[in-house]
Amino acid sequence: MRDVAAARVLSLLCQGNLAAAARLADTHQLPISQARVHLAGGDTSAALAVLEPWRRQVEAKGWADERLKVMILEAVALQAHGHRDDALQVLVDALTLAEPGGFVRSFIDEGMPMAELLSAASAHGRMPDSIGKLLAAFEVEKHKSRDQPAQPLIEPLSHRELEVLRLITEGLSNHEIGERLFLALDTVKGHNRKIFGKLQVQRRTEAVARARELGLS
To answer: Most C-beta atoms within 10 A of its C-beta, which of 28, 45, 136, 145?
Structure first.
């Protein structure tokens, strides 16, 4: 259940639903998930305050897999907190721990913050073989994401919602959309909420980007 809850927290964070993610992480007492919520909210101090004691606990218990997860996220958090040197040291320690098992996905899943940190470590000449392999893996992932067709929406947009979305992508305001489609302002706002929910975005710029990704505009 803890693994399922942790995966659900990631999904909620991808949707921008920090409140629900925080509740789930707290309910199941998931330190790494709690730290992810803090990072998503921009509170790096709170994230580190959760990760540092949890790392000591898992080290004391000899949980190597959990220790690696903590160290990877701690490196990302330290980087975001502005502690570059500490972040690089924790990253190198994590790479040393991961090397015998050939772990790659744990690093790749952290996305661009990890890629940037690995590039910084590479520039300092740290563990060139391991870091070179990971950076190459990031490039492969990047090409995969470009080549994959956009996924269809779970809940398709209605004809009216598509009309509103296309006007949003043209840069029209809610008032202008209402005038164009002969809709009340509150009705336009209601359509916006439904559109954002189906696209899993929170703001207009994200909706425009998602619409283009899906070929809806």
So the answer is: 28
pLDDT of residue 152: 62
Indicate the number of domains in the chain.
Answer: 2
Do 84 and 139 lie in one domain? The reply is yes
User: pTM for the full model?
Assistant: 0.65
Q: 35 and 77 in contact (C-beta within 8 Å)?
A: yes
Answer for the pair 6, 32: CB distance below 8 angstroms, yes or no.
Answer: yes
Q: What is the DSSP string of 151-206?
A: PPPSSPPPHHHHHHHHHHHTT--HHHHHHHHT--HHHHHHHHHHHHHHHT-SSHHH
Asked whether residue 185 falls in the same domain as residue 121, the answer is: no
pLDDT, block means (10 residues), the chain with 217 residues? 82 83 94 94 94 95 92 95 94 90 79 89 85 86 59 76 89 90 90 90 85 77
- How distant, in Å, are the alpha carbons of 73, 82, 118, 184 from that of 100? 19, 30, 18, 63
- Domain end position, chosen among 98, 127, 147: 147
Closest CA to 36 of 135, 201, 26: 26
Q: Decide: 18 and 37 in contact? Cβ < 8 Å.
A: yes
Which of 105, 121, 147 is a domain's end point?
A: 147
The closest alpha carbon to 197, from 40, 5, 21, 16, belongs to 16
Q: What CATH number did the domain enclosing 178 receive?
A: 1.10.10.10
Q: Closest Cα partner for 84 from 36, 38, 46, 116?
A: 116
Q: How many other β-carbons are positioned within 10 Å of the β-carbon of residue 150?
A: 11
